[in-house]
Structure formats: structure tokens, C-alpha cells
Amino acid sequence: MPVGNDATTVFFLKRELEASLFKIASLEKENHELKHEITRLKSQINTLKAHDLERKSILWKKLQNTMDNSSGKLIVEESPHKPKLQIDVVQDHSLLHKSNANHNGILPKPPPPLPPLTRVMNVPPPPPPPLPSSPVGSKTVRRVPAVMEFYRSLMKRDTQKENKNGSTGLASVTYSRDMIGEIENRSTYLTSIKSDVEKYGQRLSYLTREVESAAFKEISDVEAFVKWVDGELSCLVDERAVLKHFPQWPERKADTLREAAFSYRDLKNLESQVLAFDNSPKQPLIQSLRKMQTLQDRLESSISGVERSREATSKRYKELQIPWQWLMDTGVVGELKLSSLKLARECMRRIAKELESNESSRDGDLLLQGVRFAFRVHQFAGGFDTETMRAFEELKKIGSNDRRKI
User: Coiled-coil ranges per the record (predicted)?
Assistant: First the structure.
């Protein structure tokens, strides 16, 4: 595994900067193209919406006309007149005379046979009268079938046109979707990702094996390893997008290694700032005390966050063969707590000097502020070392003398 130096760091930073600039330019170009495409698609959507509204209005008119026809339709029931049978019997006047002769005792001759029955069919009834006209205002109107026929023919023709237009609209929507897919496939960003997958496939396979088999005893080695891996991955246009094409990539372990390295680096940087703190006498007292309190706040906040998640984090680090002892009070966390003793010493010495001067010899609040800060560090670090204890005794002695004077 290569060891990073200044030249290598500068080289990797340049490579990372070039990759970032290339990615930004590609994204800007793609954004410009997509804006034009969005404008064109919006115009198509507005056209389709207008066409849809027109179709809805036509359908609504059809529905209204149908309702009008059903409500105004006259149902005329005709009762057919069945032909009646009429039988006419022709009688001879001689029968009357014969009947009279019977009364006189003369037997009549048998009557001649009756003539055949004649069936006379009545003429069928005349057609029904025309529909009654309905008065409207001072005029009368009647329904004209020709109007309905002409209207239906026009509606049929319009429906055929709508079907043709509807198929064209669907084709345009399908064409738009195909165009969007084509734009995505031809995007320079996606093209760059595909190119990186093909170009750096062997390197990424090698890095996969290195990350999977990585096991360290010191957290400083983890920091150097993560720095090397990041340098190898800096040539990619988009690390996450490219690594998605490699399912064997140990994403969980790689992310945990980075987390451990960055946490260790942040704590060490904070420790360096505390140890490098310079309590210059030329600096105003209030400003110096404020800086000390700010550094102490950062120390307590960082250590508190580590201690809250220390149990779960240690378990996860052990599982992935990552050093975890530095999280304990015997490791980096303990070193940070001890570094806060310097802040306590500087604070008490500065306040002691101020109390010895004539201007602040009677300032009881200043003494209380120094003792309060010393107690805060004492509780945080778990006690004082010899040098810090000596500074505390000096402050206590000066404070006692001032109280006697008062």
C-alpha cells in the first residue's frame, strides 16, 4: 500500500479537482439540454390538455342532446282496428205472406234455400292524424325528422375525426417518452459513468479485494489506508454511481473505514488546536477566556458524542476488523481529556496575573470565573496533574489574600 506524501497528495487533489470540474461542466450541459426538452414537453402537454378539453365539451354536448331526445320523444300507441264481420241476411217478402197463410190453415211450401251468406269487410280506418303541434309563444312548432337525421350524420362524421386525432395524440405521447429515454441514454453524464465502469473495472476489482481483506491494529493505519483508497477512487466521475455496477464492492466496510478515519482525524485536529493554544499577554483577558471556553465546549461536545455511541461503534468496528481501542479513555479520547488540563492551567495563570495587578485585585467575579472553569475541567478530565494542581494552588492563594484585604 503506497504511503502518502505531499507530492502525492497534491497530485490526487489535482486529479480530484479536474474530475469535479469535468463533472460540473457535464452536468451544466445536461441541465441546459433538459431545460429545452422540458419546455418542449410542456408545450405538448398544453396542446394535449386543450384537445382533451375540446373532447370533453363535445361529449357533454352529445350527452345533453341524448337527454333532450329521450325527454321530448313522443310515444304514440296505435290500437289496430280489426276488421269486423258483417252478415247481411236477405229475406224474401213472400215469407211474410206464407206466414200469414199458416195462420189461415194452409200449409206453406217449404221455403227455398237461403242464399249464401255474404261477408262484407269494413274498410280499414284512416291513418292517424299528424302529431299535434305544440304552441310556443304565439307560434306553433312541430318536430321535423330531417333535422335529427342531418344532426346524426354530422355527429358520426365528427366522431370519426376525434378517433383519428386521439390516435395521433397517443402517438405523440409515446414519441415524447421515447425521446426522453434517448436523451437519458445519450447524456454525457451517464456516458461518462459507463466509460468509467469499462475503463476502471480491473482497478475497482483490486480495490474490492483490498477493502474486504483489510485488517489493522492502529487507527493511524486506517487513516492512511482510507486516504489511499480515496485517491484511487478520485478518478471516477461519480463514485457512488460507478460502484453500483460492482455488486461485490464492500460498501458497508468501506463506509465504516471512512467513518473511523474521519472521526480520528477530527479528534486529533481538535487536540492539536488545544495544545497549540497560545495565551498571549497582549491579548485582552476577556477574549482569551472566551477562546478557552470555546475550545473546552468543543472538547466536551466531541467526547460526549463518542461516549454516547461508543458501545455500538466498538461492536461494529470489531466485526469489521477495525481498531476500536482508541475510543476508550486509554486511547485518543483519554488524550483529549488530558489536553483540556492545559486550558485550565492557562486560564488560572492568566486570572492570577490579573488579580495581582492593581486594576483587578478587587474583582471577585474574575476569581469566581477562574475557579468555575478549573472545576469544569477537573470534572471533565477526571482530576488534575501536578502542574495544573500547582497553578490551582497559586490562584487559591491569591484569592485568599484578596479576601483578607476585603
Answer: 17-51
